[in-house]
Design goal:
It is a single chain. With about 700 residues, the protein is an alpha/beta fold. The protein contains 27 helices and 28 strands. Helix 1 crosses helix 6, helix 11 packs antiparallel against helix 12 and helix 20 packs parallel to helix 22. The radius of gyration is 50 Å and the shape is rod-shaped. The structure holds ligand C2E and magnesium ion (2 copies). Ligand C2E binds next to strand 21, helix 17, helix 18 and strand 25.
Length: about 700
Amino acid sequence: MDATLEKVRILHVEDNPGDALLLKVELDEAFGPSFASSGKKAPAWDLTCVHNCREAKARLAKGGIDVVLLDLNLPDGNGLEIVRQITLAAPKTSIVILSGRAESEHASDVLRNGVQDYLVKGKADGGQIWRAIRFAVERQKVRNHDIRDLDQSQEGFKALMEMSIDGLAVFRDGVILAANWAFEKTLGYAAGETVGKPLAFFCDPEYAAYFQSQLQRAAETPMVVFGRKKDGGGVNLEFRAKSCLYEGAPAQVLGLRDITTRKKEEEVFLQRAYQDPVTGLPNRFLFFDRLNMTLQQAARVGGRVGLMFLDLDRFKLVNDSLGHQVGDELIRAVALRLQGVIGETDTLARIGGDEFTLLLAGLQETEQALQMARRILEALSKPFQLQRHELHVSASIGISFYPEDAPDSEKLLQRADMAMYRAKDRGRSNYQAYHDSMNASSVDRLEMENSLFKAMDRGEFSLCYQPQTDLATGRVVGLEALLRWNHPTQGAISPSVFVPLAEETGLIIPLGQWVIQKACAQAKAWQDKGLPPVRVSVNLSGAQFIKHTLPFLIDKVLKEVGLDPKFLEFELTESIAMRNPAFTLAVLRELTEVVKVRIALDDFGIAYSSLGYLKDFPIHSLKIDRSFVSDLGMGTKDEAIVEAIMVLARNLGLEVVVEGVENEAQMGFLRKHPGIIIQGYFLHPPLSEQEVEVLLGKQP
Ligand code: C2E
Ligand code: MG
Ligand code: MG
């Protein structure tokens, strides 16, 4: 090692001339003649002595000193303070303390502050002093090398900070040491204003703890925190944090980026992609997302999920007759009412025109879902007041349950939808839970569509006739012709299943014409047999009704068969009649005034607002919908409704037919209202033509 040392240049800072001399003597002695005789090469040094701190600094400023031997007790300073001053004057020069015993208590302090060694005067001989000097110089060399590297990297680091477009701040022990321009600008501060502030100074108070806790994670992946600018404005910040060396000591660097705009754009995008613009509710996509998540979770914990499919009854009518604006308003109002009913954890969505879905997570009992359905129907039963219009709305609800009804979201929705259609079939304002039997009918749908076409040719259709009895006299006054499809393998299929299908496929036009022809011919045949003449009622479908040729075709049949038109009645459902009231009025006039047949308004009471038109339509009777009849005799609200319809009909000079009368309780209620006509299983089910013949033969 000595070979690498040329001449060691020593600066001895010592105010005591005796001590200064002693050092020189000890060094000379250690490497004097006795050392030379050992055959080793004596080291070389150059010793300069100064007497105080000021002189030392002046000498150091000139350079060329390798090591400072420092007394800690000088006339112009002592202890750590001198060490600091000397280090500052020559940061790359090593220091060895050579001081009195009194100062040795400072030893550990000064050693921590960059001093290489500590020797007590009189305790070390020349050889020991030299070894200390030699090691100090060597160690300083290594350190100087590091400092040079560090200086270079530090300079690069600072340049990077200055150039960075992202905000960067260096912090240590939770305090900011340095910050770049972008950092201060992002947070709305002037240059240098953030230095010295606690690290989390820019966090919204709500987020400060979160921010601190995420610093560790932010080393790997960018995190987001909500911050406050100097002026109080909010800002969304993305940040990362990483350990670094700053000015030779460990620190951390924080990178910040303002993502407020990006976040807003994301939000708008997400809203557009996931929100229904009319109601602000989740749309179909978001709903499926949530449904899938809920199902996954339920699968993990063995939970149950309920899915409700809600469809407004006759919404199309509102849209068609009052316009889309009122339609949208109604949808919004409905959404509001629904939100008022559902639970906090339930998800309500609008997935189509008048279709809403409701996700019931964490369901315990089926009854909870049914109860919710009842609450919803109740909430919708009060009229809506929209732009001068009072609208009465009802809904049909289908419910399916995970896991028993379906294993995944798509099937679950499909089944709730099926149940909803079943609820619609059963009349206004209804709900229905899914049952496996519903599925079978729709699986066969396609097959049925195909065989429906063949059925006409094969003569698989027939008519049966359900008597309508005058309550006062007990006489049969009418017969409703009801279509039957005798399917070769499936047996009798209900018209409520195949008539909608026949409508969709267009088959209803020839099929409906066949019904008119068949019913008229049958009525005429009974009359020709001498049976008391009774009118026959034929149901009209919507598709038939809008055909402009309908009155002409009916007239043609009547003439061909030779039936007096007063024995023919057409049943038009209230909802078909209300689709386009002006058109309805025109067709009904033609049918009643030109063709001279009778008209009955079927399924009356479930469409939303027909009373105003009733007095204008040339009709002869009202058929009160079955759904009002089921609870008659039990003191329910329905009794009041039925009574009100009866009063109304009487005032308008219309006949009232109550259909679906099944039991004595209902009869008991109806007997109090003479002058009405009863149709229902209680008196007669639909009968074959032979059965009708027998019945009419017994007529008084
Ligand atoms: P609708 O015109 O309301 O016919 C009355 C329905 O109620 C008939 O069902 C009848 O069988 C049923 N019904 C009668 N009394 C009772 C009772 O006491 N209790 C219960 N629960 N039900 C009773 P059906 O025959 O299944 O017909 C269903 C619907 O299919 C009819 O409803 C009608 O809208 C339609 N439809 C039937 N025949 C034809 C047709 O030839 N053409 C068209 N377009 N539609 C038809
Ligand atoms: Mg009918
Ligand atoms: Mg009816």
